Amino acid sequence: MQARTGPSHAPLLVAAAIAVTVLALIPSLVDLYQTELLIYGLTFAIAALGFNLLLGYTGLLSFGHSAYFGTGAYTVAFIMRDLSIHSMELCILGGVLATLAISALFGYVCVRHTRIFFSILALALSQVLWSLAFKFFWVTGGTDGIRVPRNQITLLAGLLDFTGSGSYQRFVYAYYYYVLVLFVIAVVVMWVIVHSPFGKALQAIRDNETRASFVGVPVRRYRWIAFVISGCFTGLAGALWAPLNGLTTPDILYWPFSGEIVFMTVLGGFRTFTGPIVGAIAFNYLKVYAVAGSPYWQLVLGGVLIVW
Amino acid sequence: MPLLQTIELKRYFGETRAVDNVSLSIEEGEFVSLVGPNGAGKTSFINVISGLLRPESGKILFAGEDITEASVTERVRAGIARSFQLVNVFDDLSAFDNVALAIFSREGKTAHLGSLAHLDHKVIGETDAVLAQFGLTAKRDGSARDLAQGERKLLDVALAYALKPKLLFLDEPTSGVSTRDKGQIMDTIASVVRREGITAVIVEHDMDVVFKYSDRIVVMAQGAVLAQGTPEEIRNNEQVAMILLGTSGPDAFTRKD
What pTM was estimated for this model as a whole? Predict the structure, then answer.
């Protein structure tokens, strides 16, 4: 809703401030394991946020976003193993740049189509990356993956490192706030994008691509740009996920993981800005506890989505 | 130099001649009506010129430039805008956002992704002015889907108008609107178009509307231009009366109700 003088941002800012404060206090209220779980949730939230720029705002359903998450994660692993660079900032930069390149290439191909053809093409391209990671084991470690040792990571240009006693604990708490800051930045950047004239143009394309071109919007080019932005957010999530998980394996490039990203977004609601964030965090808990509680965890998740 | 010139423009659908060898000129500032029976090729003609359909052969010159191969977006940038016979707006967006998008596009701002749309006071002001011109101020914030049929038609026209085109095509702007609202909608459109000096080409079935607003009337049948002239000339053309009404005579176009 657009007020005559522009909307008041006060309620939004208050809600955001409360949410950030709660998130900042959580590590002091819960144990180490729960804190770690929430880091996973926040990284997936960044991925879902990026994914939803395509689904919710541009009207394109990608079944291949594992490709960009995986590119981010594998790039971090390569940088640490092959270049012996342990600064997380440089790893993230590398991860996002690599995802930029891959999503620009894949996106260029995908946006020539829409609807199910787009979805399947995105899926097919992601499977190419998966099979590369799977087959070229002398580079990627195959199904064993690549270790991303957290005790070698340094944060904030070497200010924080995690060697010696209690390093695991220190890593989790420091990394929580590190990811939280990047999460907040990602949310703000995405909020600005979807409320910018460009964001409005994407929504117009989603609604009615014919009319969008008849008001002068270059539909295919904007879909491509949205695809690349979306890929980069998901790549950032993958880069942050790698040291947290300590290992990258082809699983995160495989199509079921793309399905999980879709699931998170749909669970939270792709018609709202915050839906994918809430969905990703909720999905992470759901999956962890469903896997622990039942051998039929996929059935449980499916049931949740239907009942929801 | 005419603003728009088509040279032997052709577009067939199989055996059907939708646009058959049409050579037509539109002068700057004219208000031209395209009339003809259903299937005469009026909408196809607009579709070919606006870029929705490719012609099989022929040329389209706009302000002297050959735009036959130009994309829809390029034609919009060059100054050609259109509305649609079947309402074609952004249903999930508010009436405000519909019009604002057209203005952002015209200003070359849709590529801006680092600024907030709702803080651009220049665009907001102009959007509100356009909505007011079309009598949509009260429906500003509701989604386009929820507007009445007549209002949706007006919004469709407002989207095209907000692009400030040199040449505006209006494909049956009053179809599906009650007779009571028709006059008001046409008055709104005509006054807005005249004030801005926009060249307008309108497809319309209501001959009262056509005679009232047109500088020139072009009659099409089976894809070809059958006749053209001032309202007075067309009114007195017996062949046209036969084609359009199936009857002729001095009072053929006079309503007998």
Answer: 0.90
